[in-house]
Amino acid sequence: MNVKPAFIAKKRLFRKKALQTCDMAVVSFPKSGRTWVRNILSQYWSDLYEENVDYEFGLTRKTITHSVNYPRIYFTHNYFDYLQDVEVSLHELMDAKWLIHSKPAFLFRHPLDVTVSYFYHKKFREKIFGGSLEEFILSPVYGVERCCQFMLQMISLSDDIPSSFNFSYENLKVHPLKTLCNLLKYWEVDINENKLEKAVKLSAFSEMRKREVLSLKEAGNNQVFSRLRYGNDVNLEPNAMKVRKGIIAGYKDEISSECLCAIEDYPSFQILITKLFNENLL
Q: For residue 94, which of 41, 170, 158 has the smallest C-alpha distance?
């Protein structure tokens, strides 16, 4: 991909505007649990404010916008899909100064679980990668090393901001209510633990998958939403679903021991895993 300076400048300007006009932001690498977080928050605010806050399985998924009650949240992968095969850092597209007033939360997940999920996304949903899982994992464009580099830049960006919040997919799985209460407390928004617990239950992966299938059937093959997210194939391969398994350390059942040994030699992988463990994110 030949990404011109003009493209980067345009995206940088858009990023600056988005971060300066939102109330808060969530930054993550693709497949780190953003869909899950969006569902929980939409369920929570729908119940708390008695408004229909449904922004995950609709056309405007990236931002909750224009409500008197619930905040505007900007969710971003920082254009990773556009910039996979070029050396553009998070800092080039997202200045820490822009994040200071948007109460940024950085969402992490184990890089191997992320990369396995990302493989299925590219192979069965976008249908742009035809190789094997191990070829994908070791790919310099898509693989685990790029994921680790991105997450290390997230940590660096978080460190540059006086007040930021780091949380993880694993935190949400093991201690969902505690993690979400801490997130909402950081954002300085209303906390109702009973409604939050209800939102977590309504956002169980079995429930989210039902809603995803229903939204696809309602959209139909001729709708823009359906084409954008699934191509023209409504008979979905299970691994093509956005809501897939929702488990911790599922990579152990999918990656060979030989491939794991190769990955463990990557310096970026070693550094990232150490940092995530030290911050209680794994």
A: 158
- CATH code, domain with 141: 3.40.50.300
HSE value, Cβ hemisphere, 13 Å, CA-based, for 258: 3
For residue 73, the enclosing domain spans 5-278
In one letter, which amino acid is 176? P
Question: Residue 81 carries which side chain, given as an amino acid letter?
Answer: D
pTM of the full predicted structure? 0.85
Helix (H, G, I), strand (E, B) or coil at 34: helix
Contacts 24+ apart (CB under 8 A), 54-60: 57/211, 57/212, 57/215, 58/215, 58/225, 59/224, 59/225
pLDDT tens string 59-102: 233 444 445 567 788 888 775 655 544 455 555 556 666 677 78
Give the closest residue to 117 by CA, choosing from 173, 34, 181.
34
Buried b (16+ CB within 10 A) or exposed e, 43-58: bbbbbbeeeebbbbbe
Instruction: For 117-173, give the DSSP string.
Output: HHHHIIIIIS----S-HHHHHT-TTTSHHHHHHHHHHHHHHHHTSSS-EEEEHHHHH
Q: Find, among 122, 81, 79, 102, the residue nearest to 188 by Cα.
A: 102
What total of structural domains would you count in the chain? 1
- For the chain, give the percent of residues with pLDDT over 90: 40
Q: How many CB atoms neighbour CB 126 within 10 A?
A: 13
The more confidently predicted of residues 112 and 219 is 112
pLDDT of the residue at 161: 85
pLDDT for 131 equals 95
Comparing 67 with 254, which gets the higher pLDDT? 254
Interatomic CA distance for residues 281 and 169, integer angstroms: 8
